Amino acid sequence: MCLLKVYLDDGVRRKLIATDVALIMREEDGFRLRFLEPSRDVLLRKAMLQFLDALNSLIVFKALE
Question: Is there a cis peptide before residue 38, judged by omega within 30 degrees of 0?
């Protein structure tokens, strides 16, 4: 099973912030990243989707600040 690797681009560099992400949901104040195991989630705030690379199982968000 290929799960997502999530990166945050701050304009200077791209930093890996999460691995094994199974689901990403848009919420009012950000994006909720849900992990497969252990069953947990993280809210990523002040970011916008930059691109999704399905072939390499990665998603990049751009920091808004």
Answer: yes
Among the listed residues 39, 35, 64, 38, the one whose alpha carbon sits nearest the alpha carbon of residue 49: 64
Q: What is the pTM of this model?
A: 0.88
CA angle (29 as vertex; 24, 35 as ends), nearest 5 = 25
Looking from the CA of 4 toward its CB, the CA atoms found within 13 Å total 19
Q: In this model, does residue 25 exceed pLDDT 70?
A: yes
**For residue 1, what pLDDT is reported?**
65
Report, as an integer, the average pLDDT of 21-28.
94
23-26 own/partner pairs: CB under 8 Å, 24+ apart = 24/59
Q: Is 23 left (phi over 0), alpha (psi -120 to 50) or beta?
A: beta
What residues does each domain of the chain span?
A: 4-63
